[in-house]
Amino acid sequence: MKKLITGVAIVVGLILPASFSFAAPPDDTFVVGLPTDTRGLEPAQISSRHTANIMKHMFGQLYSVSASGSIDPNLAESYSISEDGKEYTFTLQEGLTCHDGEALTAEDAAYSFNRVADPELAFTGNSAGFVYKSIDFKEARADSELDVTIVLGGPNHIALGLISEIYVHCKDSYENMTKEEAATNPVGSGPYEFVKWDKGSQIVMKKTANPPIPANFENIIWRVIPEASTRTAELIAGNVDMITNASPDQVEAIDASSTAKVAKVQGTRRMYVGFHQGPEFAVTPGGAAIQKPEVRRALQYAVDVEAICANLLNAPCTRMTGIVNPNNAHPTLEPYPYDPEIAEYLLDQAGYPRDANGVRFEMTLQAGEGRYLNDKNVVLAICQYLDDIGVKTKCDILDWSSVYIPLIIEKKAGPMYFIGSGGATWSPLYDMADLSKPDSGPNYTKWQNEEWFKGWKVINNTNNEYIIRREVDRMLEVFYNEGPWLHLYFQPDFYGVSNRVDWSPRRDEKVDLFSATLK
Amino acid sequence: MFLYILRRLPQTILVIFGVTLVTFIALQIGGDPTYLFISDRASPEEIEATRIKLGFDKPLYIQYFNYVIKLLQLDFGNSLYFGQSAMTIILETLPATIELTIFSMLIAIFGSIPFGIFAAIYRGTWIDGTLMAIAMLGQSIPSFWLGIMCILYISLNVGWLPISGHVPFLMPLFQGNFIEAFKNLPTTLTYLILPGFAVAFYSVARNARLIRSSMLEVLSQDYVRTAKSKGLTNYVVIMRHAMRNAWLPVVTIIGLEFGFMISGVVVVEVIFAWPGLGRTIFDAIANRDIPLVQAAVVVISVFVIIINLITDLVYAKLDPRIKL
Amino acid sequence: MNRSESSSNHKTTNGNTSGSSSFLKLLSALIQNKWALISVVWLFFIIIVAIFASELSPLDPNKNHIMERVSPPLTLDKKGDMKYLIGSDALGRDGLSRLIYGAQVSLLVGFTAVFIGGILGTLLGILAGYYGRLIDDIIMRLADIQLAFPFILLAILFLVVLGEGLINLILVLGVGQWVTYARIARAQTISQKEKEYVEAAKALGVSNFNIMFGSILPNIFAPLIVIASFNVASVILAEAALSFLGLGVPPQIPTWGAMLAESRDHIFAKRWWLPFFPGMAILITVLAFNIVGDWLRDYLDPRLKEIE
Lengths: 519, 324, 308
Hints:
The structure holds three protein chains of three kinds. Chain A has 19 helices and 18 strands. Chain A has helices at residues 2-18, 49-58, 106-116, 126-135, 159-163, 171-175, 179-184, 228-237, 251-256, 279-282, 285-289, 293-300, 305-312, 340-349, 375-388, 400-409, 428-432, 450-460, 465-482, and strands at residues 29-34, 63-65, 71-73, 76-81, 87-92, 137-142, 147-152, 192-198, 202-207, 219-224, 242-243, 260-275, 361-369, 391-399, 416-421, 485-498, 501-502, 517-518. The longest helix of chain A is centred in the last third of the chain and has 18 residues, at 465-482. The model of chain A is unreliable at 17-21 (pLDDT under 50). Chain B has twelve helices and no strands. The termini of chain B are close together. Helix content of chain C is 69%, strand content 2%. Chain C has 13 helices and two strands. The two termini of chain C are 22 Å apart. A two-stranded antiparallel sheet of chain C has the order 1-2. Chain C is an all-alpha fold. The interface between A and B is large, with 53 and 64 residues.
């Protein structure tokens, strides 16, 4: 017994002095609370927003998209486009180096681009999968010490923005690493260099001696805190400077604390319910119904999007009018209002009256869980709205990564499905690129409407901005009247920000901490 | 003793293989695991290429066969999700879980002893009543709830203890970095308190009740009552003997305790952002990361089996009446 | 003192205890133990609520009223009548209705899982104990393999693969429980095997099947019931943990565990009613099962103390 007591006394004695060491981060360090760890630190293999945000600080890009939507110089100072629009030539800054000291020249930049497409390395992810497909990447070559040229398959209005998503690094370091080594030993080119990755716990980076773009904080720590209430607790306690995805229900509590506030931004991600137009669903009664544009239009009136935003997302919103973000959207179209009476009337007219049980037709709405803000509750609310106007809806909420995503990618989710698609502020064409071809990857509805798709030919064959805008507006009208999306909202983003720092979030879900300062 | 270990060995190996087979079958039941390793917007050709590259197109028995061959060479393959060697990832997160588990087990064993003994000595009084009430409650609270409440009321509102996170001790120790390890030790202990408590509370409650009943049994025996009436010195000696016996039921369940702890550890690691094996496994299963899951399961099974073996031996040593 | 109570069971020639007198003894012992009595009453109450959920529930537990989300308890509707007695949840669904249906589902999951595990485990345990040798070895190896898997990992593994669903959840929770029953059943079978009545039955040519399930099983029932009681408690807690990890029941189905897990987001917003009611329901019910299990064990045979 005596031994036990002395033992406890020793332990307490050891602990007590340490008790006061877990306080706010030091003045030169910015701490971010993330919900998941990154999968790896390979610049050519990025599949999640969190990883992209981390990599952005360690790696430079040729040009980069700013918060306001302009595309600005980063590692490159200037660029030019060839006559036929297929070649983009960038001129790098002088005197750039990678974090291991190697000089960063055009050869390295070309290497970075070609590496992504290397069939032996077989990268998947945003760069190889989405960007390169969208710009039809052919190859990259170094024309001189500082000039690197990216060769595309054809002219492309959104190429510059997409090229900005590729991370640049040095050839010597990456040539000598295997794919496995590269995933945990990033040798970067950006303002912050990699210090360590404690798996599951944190990623630490510190500012380099000569950052290519200006940055304020000396150190950044990305802490992994999976449980949402723990993350919020850490923010309120002042141990963490910023959390992404603060839950809407915690906004008041955070704002009421003296240590942090919630910064709400109107995000650019398009949240929608897709109407699957493929033949496999057309044989079901619900699937057949939504083949008709009049039925799709009727259902637009059935959902109270504004109530969903106000109540479930704690962020009043204006309903979207189409696939494009508000600053580039169609100038005069008004969002469909919430009017269940009109919905019911239109469905009657379309030939779907209520039967003896009050049911017009049956429907299944599929969704994944846990990926988007309050997604489960939003989907349940939508199913209820449909039920209320006589469309008996089975709400199929599935596991996101193992069940839902496979269905989505194979375009088998339906007849209706809920999902979000990342958007941008710098061009309507980026937003519309989800449906750039009938067989585009993101065209999960298999919509084939001629009136829409023929517009791309017009757009791609001209550089005249007026003609492009006119065609875009025409296409958006088609989308509004007959499109395969039930329009919802642009996802609001909630960032919890400590009062200790001065930082504002961006609208496009990208996080950059370069301009953050201590108050 | 040696013979006993020898007899147990084939059985042990069989159990480990059974474990890997079950994991392998389980993860294949749900369908094609290819989908986790491509971006949201990949094309069907890429999907097919990835499927072939990762070996998911081969028939099941060939996949398992290849796996077993590698296992015998202690090669657990690369984590599909992270791309690194599965063993490396596990070894990176294992120390944190060992810290948590050992700390929790110490609490579960040593925390429950005074609990149970006091309740037995003061049987029938308000002390006994209160302690047993707490024990009953302890076995009735969901552990994640306990964890969250601790964070809110002990860490956040009062600030006595940290909310979440981890400062490594065992990892630097294993790497030979003794200075850093012992410099970190006090902080590691501070961070361990709440998670350890959350994991151990259920066990403390249960063990306390066990110790109490076992103590009561010993105390009610004639020779104890005789010693008590004869005088203090004898009584103290007998009490010590009683306490030693009270231990035994606890020892028998330590093996099971360990397995049970791991269950509690997964939940607690999530809440307290503890970067251990429990969280790695949970994420790995959600990502259908077969090599990582199998490697982790083998590692944990081996631990559990070894702990079981050890506790069986310890129990046999403590109680020579038991035949091996 | 307890020993003298239990030795009042008297055995007839086929080893069964006589029915009605032991039931009356059970009842009188129950009345004497205040806590056990309260627990049994509570459990009866909850079971009645669960059975008559559709009659007792004031509103549809799955109907959203998102404009009235997170209303506090005692919220009245426009006419001044009580609408949300214990408040509404994040989607505006009535708390009381969900609590009532939650009783139904939580108890359904609990009892069914324990039933499945119990049948499976008892079957395997009796077979192992009765036949011994190879069958015993195989079954005990299976038990070892299962024990090597910490329960939650096994549950996570199969649930992530099989997908969500009430049936999957029950199956996983049920199958995960069989080992405790098997071990006790086996140990008890082994000790019963040597008894006279078994020898006699064999001599009379009674089939093995009848011996195992006709004679031995009724005699070893008692400790199995004790385990069952503790197991229902642990299944309810396990369901709560799985809901926390996101692997519980599908979204619309109300269970106390899921309601508690969903309330996490709202702790900071001080909406105390969201975790309080399901939390108390779990606490009291689990406590009740534990108390009843304890009492049953002490009543039946104090030597069974090692059962937990």
